[in-house]
What does this fold into?
Amino acid sequence: MHAMDPKATPLDCFYYWEKAQPDKRYFTQPLGDGRVREYSWREVGDEARRMAAHLQSMDLPPRSQIALVSKNCAHWIIADLAIWMAGHVSVPLYPTLNADTVQYILEHSESKLLFVGKLDDWDTMKPGVPADLPCIALPLAPPTDYLQWDDAISAVEPLSGETTRSPEEMATIVYTSGSTGRPKGVMQSFGAMAAASIGFADIMTLDNNERMLSYLPLAHVLERWVVEANSLRYGFEVFFAESLDTFVQDLRRAQPTIFASVPRLWSKFQAGVYDKLPEKKQKLLFRIPIVSRLIKRKILKQLGLEHVRYAATGSAPLSAETLSWYRSLGLELLEGYGMSENFGYSHGTRPGEARVGYVGHSNPGVETKIGDNGEILVRSPAMMMGYFKQPDKTAEDLTDDGFLKTGDMGEIDDQGRLKITGRVKELFKTSKGKYVAPVPLENKLVNHEAIEVVCVAGADQTSPFAMFMLCEEARAHLDKGERDQSGLEAEFSALLDKVNATVDPHEQVKFAVVVKDTWGIENGFLTPTMKIKRNVIESHYAPRVETWYAARKRVIWDAA
It folds into this structure.
């Protein structure tokens, strides 16, 4: 069996590389204070096999759910491999969940054990862990009285042979980060994970010399697919980030050849460069051929991205200006689109075929069509087995011929590229009886360097309004007096005029509110993938909306 065998599950692929390159480095894990620990494929296999033996000694029911809560680290993936080797199913939890959601997922998934790893807010999560649930602490876990990973693996012999799992078997239950309601448990098979990785190579040329930095949550399907599943299939090296404070150093250590990120980070990188080399000066220098090449190379080197062959962005739109800036540096950001329900394997921009505002073509093997109501319908080889213990919801979200109802509205251009135009259920009606799609407006309004996140609302009002959350840099400049509030007001007013000129009268945004609050994952305003929780934001500000409309101002600074 070769690792590229289409029937090879992620576990089969691991066994292949464990034998083919046992002494090659697989993981580089920061330990703090600049120290790192490296793990070869052989060492990863030894620890995974020992933990699998320990799990088997617990005599859990076959194919039990075993939960895993941790920030990204080497032992996240080692624990996942051990769970699979022992014949069980992994249930990842986001490392930023509150105790109530932790309790819900552990109970709903019927998890029999919990691995607790590297966490920043364990004290707030721990109350959600049932007192009678066995727990094992990974090496970088906060202090606990749980059984320690190293103690558990030192007391057993490694599992021998190669436990195989069929492609049809359930590998994991991924609980969606959903912007409304309780998260749903998406059941994914080993075969679906394999299909997503095989398709990836049909778009990009990959081999075992690639390097990736893992820092987006492994509990999310994007990182699980692009980093975990692909490193297992193609045998390449994975570096882990230590913290946000050390991120640039972590990136420079990894020297990635493939780098995927979210728009907020791409924008932060750009803002950091602008702080050191203002936009006007850049444009002047970029006009001088030799100087331009040197400066662009230096910028990419400072960011740790000079070796990147493929760069990707996803989870939310990135402004056309930012995309153009990176392309001017020689880094083509490829946009992608996918869902937990298809393991992220749906659409992507192919190198050289990008169109701004579009998320690209259907990935190999993926079928796409637009429903009668404008909804994007997708059938992917990485489609879920269904929602755990929710057959009615599974039936509701799939068409009779097996297409997933994405909940997104879209259109397809003459070259087959998909554009997301809004959410089916996020349309709201103004008091004039006209429907407004907030997402396209938000995508246009976020095209300002001082704005990090936008939420457009206005149900049952005469016209829509927008709420702006400023980026950290803009807030800092205002606090230090380095930026004038009235100047920003004028810029935001001009932005509203520019956007309103492109939409129908009933969609025109009446005013903008600059919110004082920080919308984050921790306080529940954003999902773990940085999407706005529209219902949370709208209900939080609902008591102030009438006052805002009554103020009759173009730009309002929320003082609450």
